[in-house]
Each structure stands twice: as structure tokens, then as C-alpha cells.
Amino acid sequence: MNTNTLNLGSEVAHLKRSDMRKLINLTAAPDIISLAAGLPSGEHIPVDELKDCIATVLERDGARSLQYGPQFGPLVSWITEYMKRRSVPCEPGQVLITNGAQQGLAIVSRLFLNEGEVAVTEEVTFTGIQQVTAGRGARLRPIPTHAQSGADMDALEEALRGDPRPKLIILVPDFHNPLGVSISEEKRVQAANLAAEYDVPLIEDDPYSQLCFEGEAPLPIAAHDTSGKVFFVGSFSKMLAPAVRLGWIVAPEELMPMLVAFRESLDLESSALMQRSVGEYLQRGLLEPHLDSLNATHRKRCRAMQSALEEHMKDLATWTKPGGGLFVWVELDESIDGRDLFTRAIEKKVAFIPGDAFAVVEGHRNTMRLSFCNKSPDQIEEAVSRLARIVSEMM
Ligand SMILES: Cc1ncc(COP(=O)(O)O)c(C=O)c1O
């Protein structure tokens, strides 16, 4: 078929063809120690428990679990209580269940942001955030992120003062993808205040806060919001399993009809079977022990990565020290090109994601995202020592 004669819509011109999937495919050979993919550790995905919950739901609810239907009430109640536990005022009418956080980002950004308008994101950020902003023709006004305290609030204020006024802010407050950094408590208060003062909605994209393995995750930005400007987007992908494809938006109730209409333009609703099965899982009290063991494993692996970096890369790089999530961000000498390093690394059977894949503008070519969650401490030590050897050879 000759597609040259098709009149494609204007959004096509802005589509960002993320190379993440291509990079991850290159790392997939079984003999490669890959620190590339951002998946919660595979052996912790609760297959048997979910199998039992799905069977129970099918047995108990029959065809209702395979029909179209309203949002599953007990799941909405669980989300409402969860938000309240995190000090975010929330009523059931404020919750929209989505197919993961990505759909939440897509829906809320459509509510506020049009082609040609300005959005504020971090300079280095999750590619899905770039897809729902630049990917729809928005102009990005990026702000830097500090390795210890997260997004720069002075830069955020400057971006909000700029002309034209931004229409949307998107931040990842906890265990940032790809930086592994969390926004400090003080900056969370500032972020909520700035959104209110400049009257710009802020999406708080939080798939990672429950993956906290050192101390406790601070309260969400939404907990400090008194003006209804902060839109919380949550997800079960990382705390339970990506393939359940369930997340949620918390938004003022008055906006719900519009959010629901945007959502209906995408896919009508989330699977009743999955909503009910995850609801059953939560109702059985299985999430907390699951998170305890998942986070204990991630803690061990993250510590192994920190020790390996300390041992092999002390003179070659600086890196972040996350207390949760899945990623460590490594900055190498300016002379090192992460894409070259990636090619050499694949030859030596070790892999990572070159950091520039997450850069909103240009640059950050001397960086890498390392994921610690899916490899044993011994594999992590071996992978980091191989990477260090290659970096030394390139210096
Ligand atoms: C920061 C961030 N936001 C959103 C998502 C999308 O998650 P979900 O699977 O819930 O759509 C991801 C996935 O990796 C992510 O890292």
C-alpha cells in the first residue's frame, strides 16, 4: 500500500519516536547482563496470588467481570483511602481509574495543553512525559534537577514567569525515572505553592513512591495543595505488575465529566476483570507483604550497585543514591559518549540505557541509567566492573 498519498493528521509531525524499545531489544540476548529495563524484579511478581484472585472473581462475579461496567467501587474506595493515608484529601468522586499512569498523563495533559503551548518538565525525564507534551506539539521549557533534592524550584518559578505562561507542569516526585532522585519535602511545598501562585496546573506523576526501601517516602505534592492545581497520577504497575495496566487520576470532582470524556476518546474504560482482580488482591491484604519483600530485594540490589560503583567507578563518575525506585543515574567525564559506550558494552555483554535517551533537549551524552532491580548482587558487581573497564579504556 502506498501510504505517501494518505493525508496524515497534524499531530503526526510532532510524534516522538522514542528509541527506548530499540535500545532495550538490543540488550535482550540471554548472555548480556542487562541493567537497561525498568521492570520491578520479575521473581516478585505475585503470579500465584493474582491467578487465585482472577479465578475467584470469575467464579464469584461471572459475566459481570467480563462486561462493560462502571468503575469497580471497592477499588475506588481502596484508592480513596490510600490517598487519605498519604494526607491527600480525596473522595470517591475524584478518582478516575485509568490504564496505568501513562494514560493518566495523556488524559490530564489533554485537558490543559494544546499544540504550540508551553509545558514545564524536567530537563531529563521519562520518555512518556515527553510523548504527552512535545509529542503533541507542545513547546517544552525544561528545568534542571538536583542530584540530592530533585527538580529546581527557582528554575520552576522562572519558567512560570516566562512569556508565554506555561499551561502545564509535570514532575516525578519520587525515585525519578531515570534519575533516581526524590524531591525534598521543602520543595514539594514550594511546588504546590508555585502552581497555585502562577495558576498553572501541575501533574504529579507517582508510579514509584511505594518502592521505598530506605526510610519513608515524603508526602505527595498533592498533600500540600490547597488550590486544586495539583493532579495526582498513580499506578499499580510498579507496586504490583505492569501488565495489570491499572492506574488512577485524582482530580477535582467538577472536572470529572471532561476527564471521562477524554478517556472515552481513547478506550472507554479499564478492564472490569482486572479492576475486580486487583481489588480482590488488595482486599485480601496482600499488597503490604508483597511490597515488603519486593523492597527488601531492591534494597539489597541497590546497595550492591552502590558498593560496585564505589569500588570500580570512584574516579570515573558521579552517581545518584536513591532510597527507592529502580534506577541509579551515572554521570561520566564529558569526553565519554554514552552511545559509544553502549556499543562497546554490548560487545562485552553488559548493557544500560544511554542517558541522552531521556534528555528533553540535547546533551547529557555522558550519562547512563542503570537499573538495579532485576539482577543479583553478583551480576550487578560484574556488570559495573565491566562498564568501568570500558570507561577507563575510553578515557
Ligand atoms: C515516571 C513514569 N511515569 C509513568 C510511567 C508509566 O507507567 P504505567 O505502566 O503505570 O503506565 C512510567 C513507566 O515506566 C514512569 O517511569
Spans of at least 5 consecutive residues whose pLDDT stays below 50 are none
Sheet of most strands: 7 strands, mixed
Number of helices, counting only DSSP H or I runs of 4 residues or more: 12
- Fraction of residues in H or I helices: 25-40%
- Give the integer mean of the pLDDT values: 95
Ions, cofactors and other ligands present here are: pyridoxal-5'-phosphate
- Strand order of the biggest β-sheet: 2-10-9-8-7-3-4
Find the count of extended strands (DSSP E, 2+ residues): 15
Proportion in β-strands:
5-15%
Multimeric state of these chains?
single chain
Give Rg in angstroms: 21 Å
| N-to-C series of helices and strands | HEHHEHEHEEEHEHEEEHHHEEHEEEH
Overview features:
395 residues; alpha/beta; 4-stranded antiparallel β-sheet; 13% strand; binds pyridoxal-5'-phosphate
What does this structure look like?
This protein has 395 residues and is an alpha/beta fold. Helices cover 38% and strands 13% of the residues. It has 12 helices and 15 strands. The protein has a 7-stranded mixed sheet with strand order 2-10-9-8-7-3-4, sandwiched between helices. β7, α7 and β8 form a beta-alpha-beta unit. α2 crosses α9, α4 crosses α8 and α6 runs parallel beside α7. The longest helix has 27 residues, at 287-313. The radius of gyration is 21 Å and the shape is globular. The structure holds pyridoxal-5'-phosphate (PLP). The site of pyridoxal-5'-phosphate has 14 residues, from α4.
